[in-house]
Amino acid sequence: MKVALITGITGQDGSYLAELLLEKGYEVHGIKRRSSSLNTDRIDHLYQDPHHPNQRLKLHYGDLTDAMNLTKIVEECQPDEIYNLGAMSHVKVSFDTPEYVGNVDGLGTLRILEAVRLLGLEKKTRIYQASTSELYGGMPENKNAKGFYDENSPFYPRSPYGVAKIYGFWITKNYREAYNMFACNGILFNHESPRRGETFVTRKITRATARIALGLQEKIYLGNLDAKRDWGHAKDYVRMMWMILQAEQPEDWVIATGKTTTVREFVRMAFGEVGIELEFTGKGVNEKGTVLYCTNPLFQIELGKEVVSIDPTYFRPTEVDLLIGDPSKAKEKLGWVPQHDLASLVKDMMQSDVKLMQKDQYLKQGGYSTNNYFE
């Protein structure tokens, strides 16, 4: 039985990856930070009684800032594969906590690599490092001939998060070459799901849209609606993570859809899933989204009502306007093809969040509707 160790197992990617590996027969060990709350909602459905003879998911308290603790966990697990998904991954917040981000996202990667090296596991353990499209910084002159970012595009990070991740990228590459480790970077473009954190823009949009449709919230405040992103489904991306560590040779890989969409269009699609058509007027900080019409009788909002407004505080100090990746290498060499498009992703997120917000409706209105809004 193969053994995998996942840092950040309680996050979006970690939970989907744990599901995938358990389905493939792995014994899965996960590292979670100690806190007064359990914070295991995304993996509770995978976790049985720890004394159960068939329990193949095991959790360890740990932190990427604690080298001794990480080394101890790696020694105990003797993993065949390590997936370093743990990070402070919110770009906007990284401007507020730059030192912490550098310690976790940058040096945390080094601590994982050093643990494997010091324990003499270079030949046994394959390492996946979660890198990010924020390495590119959206610099147009750094795109390839097709107008995309690929594995050979120069980096120009535009946030403390991106800068910390660029250290993680290069130290992984360095250890691969210096110590002959099977250590790979997956340069992930934006990937979302119903398990996305509530402070990330896509989940913020789908949660707010559900609440507005159910009469629990008046409007949503957003930042740069013109920003474009390459959005995929996290399920597709964790499948590629696993494929990367099954390859014959350790390499670095771009994981992306190759398609880009504005934040504004994502908002349109989210409201469209509940039968609400929006109209956007104005520019910059004066832009607003209003209800043009409603086709779903279960979601009747006053026509002309403003449901999207701009809050300048959500603009980043250095904005990355466009990020789009070229997954050609992954498709040609590993046969990876996304199974979800953006429309199915938005539908998946909206279905989940409408159900979730119905619970809030129950608390507010004293009655729980059992209507299936998507039939």
Question: What would you say about this model in short?
Answer:
The chain has 375 residues and is of the alpha/beta class. It has helices at 12-23, 67-77, 91-94, 98-118, 160-179, 201-213, 234-246, 263-272, 328-334, 342-365, and strands at 3-7, 27-32, 57-61, 81-84, 126-132, 182-188, 191-192, 220-222, 228-229, 232-233, 253-255, 261-262, 276-281, 288-294, 306-310.
Uncertain stretches of 5 or more adjacent residues: none
Give the % helix: 25-40%
With strands numbered from the N-terminus, the spatial order across the biggest sheet is 3-2-1-4-5-6-11
Rough shape? globular
β-sheet strand percentage: 15-25%
The biggest beta sheet reads: 7 strands, parallel
Structure, explained:
By secondary structure, this protein is of the alpha/beta class. Helices cover 36% and strands 18% of the residues. It contains ten helices and 15 strands. It has helices at residues 12-23, 67-77, 91-94, 98-118, 160-179, 201-213, 234-246, 263-272, 328-334, 342-365, and strands spanning 3-7, 27-32, 57-61, 81-84, 126-132, 182-188, 191-192, 220-222, 228-229, 232-233, 253-255, 261-262, 276-281, 288-294, 306-310. A seven-stranded parallel sheet has the order 3-2-1-4-5-6-11, sandwiched between helices. Helix 2 crosses helix 4 (98-118), helix 4 (98-118) packs parallel to helix 5 and helix 6 packs across helix 10. It is globular, with a radius of gyration of 21 Å. The two termini are 42 Å apart.
